[in-house]
Design brief:
Layout lengths: L12 E3 L2 E3 L3 E3 L11 H13 L4 E8 L12 E2 L6 H12 L4 E7 L15 E2 L3 E2 L8 E4 L2 H21 L3 E6 L5 H6 L14 H4 L1 H14 L4 E9 L12 H9 L5 E6 L2 H4 L12 H4 L2 H4 L4 E3 L6 H9 L5 E4 L1 H5 L3 H6 L14 H7 L33 E5 L3 H13 L2 E5 L7 H6 L10 H11 L4 E4 L6 H6 L4 E4 L3 E3 L20 E2 L1 H5 L9 E5 L5 H11 L4 E5 L14 H10 L3 E4 L1 E6 L3 E6 L4 E6 L2 E5 L2 E3 L2 H7 L4 H4 L4 E4 L9 H14 L21
Parallel strand pairs: 3-4, 3-14, 4-5, 4-6, 6-10, 7-9, 10-11, 11-12, 12-13, 13-14, 15-16, 15-18, 16-17, 18-29, 20-27, 21-22, 21-27, 22-23
Antiparallel strand pairs: 1-2, 8-9, 19-28, 24-25, 25-26
Helix pairs in contact: 1-2, 3-6, 15-17, 15-24
The protein binds adenosine-5'-diphosphate and iron/sulfur cluster (SF4).
Iron/sulfur cluster binds next to α12 and α14.
């Protein structure tokens, strides 16, 4: 039974001519599947509807060849040939009584039109911005603007004919045509589309009016609008032009979906922003309009959602990441079990995979993107096929997920963990600055394990090979994790760095264990490129140490560009006085100095430092695996049918991979996957006759 405090979340809401069944709005979000992996995309969207999201929309859907998003795998709707897959998505959403929405997008001057080869268009002549290809957008003349408006109107009509209930007209993220016209820095026109705010807003107003005219009696028209670009007076600010723009268009949309821009600001990670962080920017909107308002902000707590509605900030809860981490979030609240919500940890792994043009994945939800491909369901899993017992060694993300999923299948599961606390690396890393929310990976799973009587958990239990043989399990998963290397070997250094074997040279594990180098400056050598070096730099700065981060890459924390964190990481390091040496490779470590090669200037640099931290790569902690392998026939004699390594013990990687491997282990128990085959359904392109 639902807690009556949450009733307001389940009140229907009229959006123009259509009615959303509740207040849960899965806003448009990229997913790296889109048009390229349409079956996967449809399966994923349908799952959101099944899980209770009252509105489920597409990601951005580009509607004309001049706005081609290649190499990103968004949806597109260029001609009637695209109606089939989009129609299938609509059906998948309607099957569960939700409204299907489509976000019409033209990325204007940002796209280089890599597939269509059309010359990009925008308000001004300027280089196309995505990925800095040597391609320019040309300034649109009046005919171009008329044509663009026609394409948009036709797209809205096509969307209606396909069966969509809602169309999203979109000006946000510093990445769509109306945004480009609106921004002073992008628009230097002297005609009626440039100059004053009214003029710069003209195109957006026309699009909204024409969309309403074309489909407004059949579809709800949502306007998605970034009210603040978070760049001070250089961009739109909610106190000035952002507010005035909303005021000018106040009653035009059926619903205002407001946020901040660009994408990095809209999808901040938990390291840089808490739940509900956009409220302060968008709270004014409801005072400007009688139309309903929604925003996003990584809402996962029903109390925070109710509070945002009751305080009059919004009427509808927008969510992308929380709906990825838990497609069943609304149903869980409705069924009175909010403690079962698998809360997004705000890591942006989902974003990163999209940004590298691969199907998205989720750290918390291993079934995301696998709904069609593997037939995995985030909440249901088929029951066990035997009474075999399962032993899992190690309770990090891989072991915890394996135990949870195998437990849900009904197997008798024993989970043994050497440490006093469960969680493995997520417990350890969540104690580092800014990563508290990562403990949700552990907490959700422990919460689920507590509900199962068929899973026994033994902390403070280091298992050796002999113990594994004695425990009477038929299937064993070794989820014993990995440790950071101590020798500096990684992407760049292929041989151990000279001088690594000294007491003042530490690994990230050492720091997490509480060890510290002697007083004095610390050099962190980052050849990993993800978050760890920057987080350790925060830790050491918090403790008052002078920190130098050296990396062979051209930027610090280079890979975090994909998680939209690189800029804030670099800014924070600069703010805190961390010395950053890019294109510097560690050569030797002395007792109180290090020598680095300055790869740009091709010279050596020697720096004084009291300690060195090597953040380069990890090695599996697989001693138990090798000990068991040495047991030979004793394994079968002990009744063990299978021993598998999962997670970092099998292949060190990001947490998302460990969770996935844990889940996969449980899914594949009592199956015999073909080791030579492809372990998932494939998307096939049709070859014309
Ligand atoms: P993953 O990311 O693959 O889940 P982690 O490093 O987070 O890996 O977790 C591995 C866990 O396994 C750690 O908590 C570690 O204490 C535990 N562990 C390692 N070896 C043993 C062992 N022999 N017996 C029990 N637990 C172990
Ligand atoms: Fe949230 Fe991370 Fe999952 Fe994205 S990948 S939905 S940020 S938990």
């Amino acid at each position: 039974m639902r807690d009556p405090r949450y009733d307001i979340l389940f009140e229907p809401l009229k959006i123009g001519p259509v009615t959303a069944p509740n207040r849960f709005y899965q806003v448009p979000h990229c997913n790296g599947m889109g048009r390229t992996f349409p079956n996967a995309m449809i399966g994923m969207r349908g799952m959101k509807a099944e899980g209770g999201w009252g509105i489920v929309t597409t990601e951005q859907c580009d509607f004309h060849v001049t706005g081609d998003t290649q190499a990103f795998t968004e949806t597109n709707m260029w001609d009637e040939g695209d109606e089939t897959y989009l129609g299938r998505m609509v059906e998948a959403v309607h099957e569960h009584g939700s409204l299907a929405g489509i976000e019409l997008v033209h990325n204007g001057q940002d796209t280089a039109n890599l597939y269509s080869r059309e010359v990009p268009i925008g308000p001004d002549h300027r280089p196309a911005s995505w990925m800095r290809h040597p391609i320019q957008a040309r300034a649109m003349d009046k005919d171009d603007i008329r044509a663009y408006r026609r394409w948009h109107r036709k797209a809205a009509e096509r969307a209606r004919n396909i069966g969509f209930d809602i169309v999203v007209v979109y000006s946000g993220h510093d990445g769509t045509m109306p945004t480009h016209f609106l921004a002073r820095r992008h628009n230097h026109r002297t005609d009626e589309y440039g100059g004053s705010l009214e003029n710069r807003l003209r195109l957006f107003r026309e699009l909204i009016e024409e969309t309403k005219e074309a489909v407004g009696d059949t579809m709800g028209v949502i306007v998605r609008f970034a009210v603040d670009e978070m760049m001070g007076p250089d961009g739109l600010e909610w106190q000035n032009e952002g507010r005035e723009a909303v005021e000018m268009l106040a009653e035009l949309p059926d619903l205002w979906d407001v946020n901040v821009s660009d994408w990095a600001n809209d999808s901040k990670t938990s390291r840089f922003a808490p739940e509900g962080y956009q409220e302060e920017y968008v709270a004014f909107v409801k005072q400007m309009t009688t139309k309903p308002v929604s925003t996003v902000g990584r809402y996962t707590s029903p109390d925070a959602m109710v509070s945002a509605i009751k305080r009059g900030v919004i009427d509808l809860i927008g969510a992308a990441r929380p709906s990825i981490a838990d497609p069943f979030l609304p149903r869980k609240i409705e069924e009175g079990r909010p403690e079962d919500i698998r809360e997004c940890i705000g890591c942006n792994i989902c974003v990163a995979w999209n940004n590298v043009s691969a199907p998205s994945r989720c750290t918390q939800n291993p079934t995301f993107g696998e709904e069609w491909r593997k037939g995995w369901h985030p909440e249901r899993i088929r029951t066990k096929e035997s009474d075999d017992r399962v032993l899992i060694v190690g309770a990090g993300p891989a072991g915890l997920e394996a135990a949870r999923a195998a437990g849900r299948r009904g197997y008798h599961v024993t989970l043994a963990e050497a440490a006093d606390e469960l969680g493995g690396r997520v417990s350890r890393e969540s104690r580092l600055p800014g990563l508290t929310a990562w403990a949700r990976v552990r907490d959700y799973r422990i919460g689920q394990l507590h509900q199962m009587t068929n899973v026994e958990v033994f902390p403070a239990s280091t298992l050796e090979a002999a113990n594994v043989l004695e425990l009477g399990a038929q299937h064993v998963a070794l989820a014993t994790g990995a440790r950071w290397r101590r020798d500096g070997v990684g992407y760049t250094l292929r041989e151990p760095v000279q001088g690594f074997d000294q007491p003042h040279v530490l690994s990230p594990d050492d720091l997490m264990d509480g060890k510290r180098p002697p007083d004095g400056p610390v050099l962190i050598f980052d050849d990993d490129g993800y978050y760890m070096a920057s987080v350790l730099s925060d830790l050491l700065r918090d403790e008052g140490r002078d920190v130098i981060v050296a990396t062979p890459s051209t930027q610090v924390a280079q890979w975090t560009e994909h998680t939209l964190e690189q800029e804030p990481i670099e800014a924070r390091m600069a703010e805190r006085g961390v010395t950053m040496l890019t294109r510097h490779t560690l050569e030797t470590i002395g007792p109180s100095t290090v020598t680095l090669s300055d790869d740009l200037n091709r010279r050596d640099v020697t720096l004084a430092c009291a300690g060195v931290v090597l953040v380069t790569a990890r090695l599996p902690r697989d001693g138990l695996w090798h000990d068991l392998a040495a047991k030979g026939d004793d394994i079968a004699a002990a009744g063990i049918k299978s021993i598998r390594r999962i997670g970092d013990c099998y292949g060190p990687g990001p947490i998302v991979t460990a969770v996935y491997m844990g889940h996969r282990f449980a899914q594949e128990l009592d199956t015999e996957p073909d080791p030579d085959g492809v372990p998932f359904r494939r998307e096939r392109h049709l070859i014309e006759a």
